[in-house]
Write a structure and sequence with these properties.
Layout: H1 5-12, H2 15-18, H3 24-42, H4 46-61, H5 65-68, H6 72-88, H7 92-104, H8 110-115, H9 126-132, H10 136-139, H11 141-147, E1 163-164, H12 170-178, H13 181-185, H14 190-204, H15 219-229, H16 235-248, E2 253-259, E3 271-278, E4 283-287, E5 295-296, H17 305-313, E6 319-320, E7 325-326, E8 330-331, H18 334-344, E9 348-352, E10 354-355, E11 368-373, E12 385-388, E13 392-397, H19 400-403
Parallel strand pairs: 1-10, 11-13
Antiparallel strand pairs: 2-3, 2-9, 3-4, 5-6, 7-8, 9-11, 12-13
Helix pairs in contact: 3-4, 3-6, 4-6, 6-7, 11-18, 12-16, 14-16, 15-16
Length: 407
């Protein structure tokens, strides 16, 4: 059984830079239907499930194509859960029919299908294997990473140099003083100071993945707006706040958009975290304020995004900090957070060229530049440089050494 997709959007939603707009009336309806689907699943009641699914399909099909997009996953997962419900009453024919429908409408979580206890009897069927085996290339996320061709450190395409705003910038000084960040970080070593800031941002601002961020996108303004309006930020907003707080303390940092391969062009989900430089360790660290998360090896050493990705590929141990959580009430497991969610989103990595205050607030004449690190097997390698409107420029590279260069 799979929890329905609007619930996942609340937890992970980061559509196209973390922004998504939903039809609020249909959202309320979808949440109610989700609970009815789950209830019917728990009772193994296929008749009730089908009735509720028919009602959902009727309202969903009446939406505009734009309004359908955020809810397509609800329909896909409803088909999948009805497949599970049929499987639990040993109706293999209908279970396979709805499994096919779920895959046809975008369900591609191969790892979950192969581990789902509801489908244990189906997995021995020849028909099941025929339906599911082709899915591995798009839905087995660790498999995709393992089969991605390596980077090319000899890629000599020109990309601009990274820069980091200095601690004496007036905006960063104001941010540091406004929230007394010296007391937040404390007098401990640099790694503890980094983690203390991550904890502070995580506890201060709730994650709301199904909402866009404020129009003014700097830490000082977003924190104040969240307090005033009792709202949260999506993962990009949270990583932006932490990034600017780190810069204000003289700590080099970038926020990183982590994206899937998405060969079918149907997965709009991504996640945004921070890479933070620790001079004493001479390395970048994986820091995620949304999930209050960092990652270690078997010795307890903190790891970089690059190291986590390589360890996944090479089957080396990874340890998630035990207090990793979502909004302080849902603990995260290593399996779900790293080997499922982040494995999917570690295929393409993108970060701004300039790490600075107020980077993504739109202003006349302002241009933000980004660099994307692509594996060699990615199907869309060109152009080397492209523009999105007049405000965004992106550069593609296969050169991991350039992308991960130390500040």
């Amino acid at each position: 059984m799979k929890q329905l997709f609007c619930l996942l959007l609340t937890l992970f939603g980061t559509i196209a830079y973390g922004q998504i707009k939903m039809n609020q009336d249909f959202l309320k309806f979808a949440i109610i239907q989700d609970s009815l689907f789950i209830d019917a699943y728990k009772r193994h009641d296929v008749k009730s499930f089908n009735m509720q699914l028919t009602a959902f399909e009727a309202k969903y099909n009446a939406l505009s194509e734009t309004d359908k997009k955020p809810f397509s996953g609800n329909l896909t997962n409803a088909y999948y859960n009805l497949c599970c419900t049929y499987a639990l009453i040993d109706n293999n024919k209908m279970a396979l029919a709805f499994l096919k429908k779920s895959i046809a409408t975008g369900y591609f979580d191969y790892t979950h299908i192969m581990a789902d206890a509801d489908l244990v009897k189906l997995r021995n069927l020849k028909e099941f294997k025929a339906v599911v085996d082709p899915l591995r290339r798009i839905g087995d996320f660790v498999y995709i990473l393992k089969n991605a061709e390596k980077y090319n450190v000899n890629d000599n395409r020109v990309i601009p140099p990274f820069s980091y705003q200095t601690v004496d910038n007036p905006n960063l000084v104001a941010l540091r003083k406004a929230f007394n960040l010296d007391s937040i970080t404390g007098n401990a070593n640099e790694v503890s100071r980094i983690i203390n800031l991550m904890h502070w941002v995580h506890d201060l601002i709730p994650h709301e993945g199904n909402n866009g961020n404020p129009v003014v996108k700097n830490a000082l303004s977003m924190i104040m707006e969240c307090k005033r309006d009792h709202r949260g930020l999506n993962c990009r907003g949270m990583a932006t706040v932490l990034n600017e707080c780190l810069l204000s303390m003289g700590i080099k940092s970038r926020f990183i958009t982590c994206l899937p391969k998405d060969s079918l062009k149907i997965d709009n989900d991504c996640h945004v975290i921070n890479m933070v430089y620790a001079p004493s360790m001479k390395k970048w660290l994986w820091i995620d304020p949304t999930f209050n998360a960092y990652v270690m090896n078997e010795k307890g050493d903190l790891l970089s995004i690059e190291e986590v990705r390589e360890r996944m590929i090479n089957d080396k141990p990874l340890i998630l900090n035990p207090d990793a959580n979502w909004n302080r009430h849902q603990s995260q497991t290593k399996e779900e957070y790293l080997y499922h969610y982040m494995a999917k989103n570690l295929y393409i990595l993108e970060c701004p060229v300039n790490s600075e205050y107020n980077l993504e607030t739109k202003e006349p004449g302002k241009v933000a530049s980004y660099i994307r690190l692509l594996p060699l097997d990615y199907f869309d390698q060109s152009p080397d440089k492209f523009e999105l409107g007049t405000t965004i420029v992106k550069y593609n590279t296969n050169n991991s050494a350039s992308f991960w260069q130390k500040p």
